[in-house]
Amino acid sequence: MHTKKEEFLAGVHSGIPICLGYIAVSFTFGIMAKNAGLSVWEAVLISAANLTSAGQFAGLSLIVSGSSLLEMAATQFVINLRYSLMSCSLSQKLDQSAPFFHRFFMAYGVTDEIFGVSVCREGPLSPFYSYGLISVAAPGWTLGTFLGIVSGSILPERLIRALSVALYGMFIAIIIPPARGNRVIAGIVAVSMILSLIFTEVPFLGSISSGFRIIILTLLIGGAAAFLFPLREETEVAEDES
Questions:
Q1: Quick one: which of 169, 139, 118, 156 has its CA closest to 51?
Q2: pLDDT digits over 38-90, tens only?
Q3: Which of 14, 22, 82, 120 could potentially form a cystine with 140 if both were Cys, beta carbons 3.0 to 4.6 Å apart?
């Protein structure tokens, strides 16, 4: 049985690699925020309050395009809905007697990376392990944003444009590995690219704002993929192999 301090320190140790990765990605967000006209503290506040790369990049594009608050809220709801599912999964690893305030504060730090590390930890999940993860990961995300937007005011314009491309490199790095190992994912990625191009180039569809375009494509492609290629339960797979 680990003490609270041991659990917290274990979370800090596991969170260091996440922190370093967050600094690299949020640095790009800071540069884009600078190009969009946000101040240093506006960009830092966004990162400190959200901790979501996809949501923040989408939100920034909506701010630049002058979208409505309703469109912003709907887009963020769809993009970040996965965190609700992650939270439900993590709640099953918590002691049922864990007070509500632990669940409340842990929810703030549920990200893809923190979820992945937490769900793979053996045994029950301690809230203090999660606090250790969050205590280094969240500041890393905010620090990267700060460094990015400050650098945007100092570095040469050519270098800023080059660093802005890092965002697309990050998305490619996320997509390629699973797509190479799964034909279904590769097909879904290809369909997503084609439909995104159609929604951009076709006059009628191109008139749809970027926020609602993201919502429509996410629901359409995600729903179709879930219906046509549902995930099979492990028990079913085991029965088939036997």
A1: 139
A2: 999 999 999 999 888 888 888 888 888 888 888 888 888 888 888 887 888 88
A3: 22
Structure token digits, residue 74: 């709907």
Terminal Cα distance for the chain, rounded: 38
Burial 134-150 (b: 16+ CB within 10 A, else e): bebbbebbbbbbbebbb
Tokens of 212: 């609602």
What's the pTM value of the predicted model, to 2 decimals? 0.70
Burial of 130 (0-12, 13-18, 19+ CB in 10 A): buried
Measured CA to CA, the distance from residue 218 to residue 226 in angstroms comes to 12
CA 240 vs CA 134, 181, 226, 234: distances in Å:
41, 21, 21, 10
Q: Which of 26-38 are b and which e, b meaning 16 or more Cβ less than 10 Å from the residue's Cβ?
A: bbbbbbbbbeeeb
Q: How far apart are CA 91 and CA 95, in angstroms?
A: 8
